Task: inverse folding
């Protein structure tokens, strides 16, 4: 049932593609027969246990008369006394999972100074800075591939050698103490912090990918690269992103994979992209 439903969705999309109403083509692949909850486990970023959709939005209150000037439920006995609360006690009550690493742990990159026109195209694969396409399997570890790929590019630009770095090293060792959740998702900045604090990441050859989180087995003797800093690009500024790709190198990025689950070829462009990753 799920498979047939997805096939029909692919066929409808591709008919629009044939009429030049879409810029990319879809195809049946290894994800086509997956249930939505199975696919969502592969999507990398840690999702909150409670979604807004778990609760219905309140209906608009019907207001037939003027509202009171003030309401004090303390006077009605509905509110207890103010209590002392330590910061760590308060933080436990804040509901959403707080990341162990804050954005302030890394400085935001200064806005790229653009003194001349940007190149029409930049392909770091042609320059030898990008390793081959890899397969994450049935594990929501895309954040480790994004982080390792960016480190591979920077290491290449520094040394002139392209070294495949270990996503499994990040998956195993940049754990919940860094705010990551293995195959349930994580953040690239958390991965970079691990590599920086660990003073290295192993090579893919010495620490191959397994597709599940296991015990950390980092070995300094197999170190393939190090990282000393990481910076965030300004949110939502595509010109700054273009400038960074052109001048800095391969950039670690995350995208919402929901609408490109069955992607085959073309330039992805959609105004229907949901907000959640």
Result:
């Amino acid at each position: 049932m799920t498979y047939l439903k997805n096939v029909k969705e692919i066929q409808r999309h591709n008919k629009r593609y044939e009429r030049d109403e879409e810029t990319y083509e879809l195809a049946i692949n290894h994800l086509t027969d997956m249930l939505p909850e199975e696919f969502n486990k592969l999507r990398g970023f840690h999702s909150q246990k409670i979604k807004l959709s778990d609760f219905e939005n309140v209906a608009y209150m019907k207001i037939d008369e003027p509202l009171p000037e003030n309401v004090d439920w303390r006077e009605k006995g509905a509110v207890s006394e103010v209590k002392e609360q330590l910061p760590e006690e308060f933080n436990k009550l804040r509901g959403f999972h707080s990341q162990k690493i804050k954005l302030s742990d890394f400085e935001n990159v200064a806005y790229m100074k653009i003194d001349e026109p940007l190149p029409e195209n930049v392909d770091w694969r042609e320059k030898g800075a990008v390793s081959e396409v890899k397969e994450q399997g049935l594990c929501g570890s895309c954040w480790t591939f994004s982080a390792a790929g960016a480190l591979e590019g920077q290491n290449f630009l520094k040394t002139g050698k392209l070294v495949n770095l270990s996503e499994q090293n990040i998956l195993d060792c940049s754990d919940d103490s860094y705010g990551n959740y293995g195959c349930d998702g994580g953040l690239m900045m958390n991965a970079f912090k691990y590599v920086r604090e660990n003073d290295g990441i192993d090579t893919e050859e010495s620490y191959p990918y397994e597709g599940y989180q296991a015990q950390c087995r980092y070995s300094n003797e197999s170190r393939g690269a190090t990282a000393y800093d990481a910076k965030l690009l300004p949110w939502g500024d595509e010109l700054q992103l273009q400038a960074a790709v052109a001048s800095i190198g391969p950039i670690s990025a995350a995208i919402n994979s929901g609408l490109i689950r069955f992607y085959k070829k073309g330039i992805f462009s959609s105004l229907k992209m949901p907000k959640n990753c």
Summary: Residues 142-159 form the longest helix (18 residues). The domain at 103-256 is CATH 3.90.70.10 (Cathepsin B; Chain A). The beta strands are 24-26, 201-202, 223-225, 263-266.
